Amino acid sequence: MLFNTEAFILFGLSALTFVSPIHHNSERGIIRERKAVKGAKCSTKIFTKDQVGQAYAEAKAHVAAKTSVRGYPKRFGNNLSLDPKTKKCVGTPVYAGLMNDLIEYPIYADASGTVMLWSAAAGKIGGDMKYRVVLKANGNFVGVMEHTAGSSFKMCTLIEEEDETTGATSLIPDNTAETICTATTSTT
């Protein structure tokens, strides 16, 4: 015989383990789907999926090119810091379970409420600059947040597109439930 049947079968089985179609997320071996970009309802502002998507795409492009505009995109510390005395994590995370490698990028609304891409002129012409798109360093969409009093942030609620017949929006709960803290987090 020209080949060993036993060796052939073992080689074939071992080759199958390397071409498995299952995608594993590198985060602690958890298999997760990417969160889709959605609209967002913040305390006084609603952003459509397209508006959030524009800011998200712009942020991803800057991250990939390693460029920035007026300091953005930048690392988001998720409202956490390490207390040097107790060595414990302090602060309330905006996104529980996502403590590292978060990036923020502005969704800029001018004085008339028109959402614009972040630029060197943004903020010099007035308008509301407290909203941010949040993504992971790997480019995955996380959500939208807003600056509140002081240096705090608050997560905005992700929404489906508005129903054109009723004008109603459907809310989407955020499903990030893990709670961890690491020494690499810092307050932004």
From TrEMBL:
Keyword Mitochondrion: no
Presence of keyword Hydrolase: yes
GO molecular function terms noted in the UniProt entry: hydrolase activity; RNA binding; RNA endonuclease activity
Signal peptide start-end: 1-21
Coiled-coil region list: none
UniProt keywords, alphabetically: Hydrolase, Nuclease, Signal
Protein name listed in UniProt: Uncharacterized protein
